[in-house]
Amino acid sequence: MVMRTGVIGIDRVAAVVGFANSHLLAVLEFQAANRRQALFFNRTTECVLMVTPVDGIRAVHNAFRQDIQRIDAAALDSARGKEGLAATIERFRFLNEVLVWHAEGEEIAIFPALENVAPLVAEAYVKDHRGLDSAFDELSNSYSAQDPLRTARATAAFRFHLTLHLYKEDTHLYRIFNERISLPEQGKAMGTMAGKIPQERFPDVVGWMFPLIGHEDRENMTRIWQMVMPAPAFAGVKENIKKAIGSDWAELTRRIPTL
Ligand SMILES: [Fe+2]
Q1: How far is CA 243 from CA 23, 74, 77, 211, in A?
Q2: Is pLDDT of 1 > 70?
Q3: Ligand 1 midpoint to CA 192 (Å)
Q4: Which of 23, 79, 119, 174 sits a CA distance of 20 to 30 A from 180?
Q5: Looking at residue 115, what is its pLDDT?
């Protein structure tokens, strides 16, 4: 492979050959524009991925942000007397289901890996997760009590806490994770984390997530799954994505011609 380092200003190159997942032959890590980046190669030495696992985390976080914002806006409108918003507000149930899988995945895979390289950092984030559990309980109870004002206060509290938590994770916790943990280890942690999603709920997760995120996040997420999933499983996920994004499928295949 020829790399014209002058063009993108690479500071440091480190190749990692061999990967936990058999689809991958090599990971070429490099530092560019003050950011750790990587190229992934498959067994035919075709460059298949130019994202890091943390790009996938960011995509999920963006879906959470977008969903809770819509839910909170609908709850406020509903408290002001607007009708027909139940379906939007009730999205909080599935959002929380995904959030719990995500938080459990972080707690069993990401946080222990981080503990080795940045002791005591993750502890604060576990406390955040328990706070999110309480915020969900308050929201669920308020909604069940058919109290629109209390529901709107609960969605506002949930939105504020969730958004701040995700901001801290993106700019602090995952920054440390990305800087101090090797890519193969990152990939392994992400694989364990993905395992927290029950297999039969995967289509629902795709159907929830993809309409909530932009083209770049969709591309990153799809490329990561395409790489880490066995081909038959990915074929199913591909159909789920196609169904979830409708006419935007054309843009995704333009970005990923191998789809
Ligand atoms: Fe988290």
Answers
A1: 26, 25, 30, 10
A2: no
A3: 15
A4: 23
A5: 96
